[in-house]
Amino acid sequence: MDDSTLNMKKMKMKIIIFMALGILASNNNLSAQETNKLNMAFSTKGNFQAHTVHYYELDSYYSYNENTEMVGAALNASLGLSGNIPLSSSLAFFPRLGYTKLRGLRSTAIRYYSDKPDFIRVLGHIAETRYYFISSDFLLKYYLPLGKARHSWIYGGLRTDFLLWDNDVLYPDEQIEEGMNHFNLSYVGGFGFDFWNRFFFSLEYSNNINTFVNNDRYWIRYFSVSAGLGVYLF
Fold it and tell me: How many CB atoms lie within 10 A of CB 141?
């Protein structure tokens, strides 16, 4: 075999290798682009929700942090629809519409403070009333360049919760209804990933920006840690 024939075969091998690498690269880019595409999904979330309460009447006895405590924790589930509207190859608008409930509070405990002449009744950990919300999320999703395709993402934005109704089971403290905000605003942040080209999993945290209840005695906010599972509809 002469040198010209050997060089020709080497050249063909190089061309084949370069073509294979090009095809592989284009497939990877295609997978990344197909991940961030116009879509709609149905999802369900498991929520750990809790109230945070601050008592104005104890401000003179304790610091702000000591006088703010978490009460009324509960687990529940919520259903919703979400969309994926690409804004660029890595960024998408991620709107969501959901329906959820929040467990309310009732007074169950009496605390006596030796440095105060009378007792203060505080909100306890047992809940009776249920609040039902329609939630609208306005989020941005950013696909992370991890792996061969962009299947992992982070997201964040704002949530609006509108109180539809409550079952009004028990209101032992009349002030629980005073200063109640039927429209609540929260910040939301989380991460997720797609798998099997049809499903996704997400984990997020949200917390009120305004207050759910704010009156002369206390303010109440609620937060949640949620794990979600969804299926893309197309």
Answer: 24
